[in-house]
């Protein structure tokens, strides 16, 4: 939900905190519609987590629920960004897609192509990393993970998975 709005940014309340979303006024056609606090939005973009700077999302599109309209950013405006995420209208849920790079006891690393993100699995109610059960996440699998992303104590990002879908299993077979 939009908390506050300025010329080229707005503050997004995602349920567990707030993050600044960067999108130029011209990209969201501010002359026709200005975002206002309380607007429910769906932000698709890239997390920009530069060292010693505040984490922001560089929006590639912003869907405004009450308008049923999506505003798209100009490709000319994009900065060097790190992790591809989608923030749906469901508050505090984030979607990350990529290839599993490594697997540990209760976590795995997803390579998004722009960066790597550690996904914590202990809150799922089952273990997708063991040899039991239907789902087994392995190195090389292409996955889509929903969950919550938070800043870690020492400056990194932590991602707690709520659900995992294997889009393509290691070896190129599509999962059903």
Automatic annotation (TrEMBL):
Gene3D superfamilies: Bacterial OB-fold. InterPro entries: BOBF_sf. This is DUF5666 domain-containing protein. It comes from Halochromatium salexigens (Chromatium salexigens).
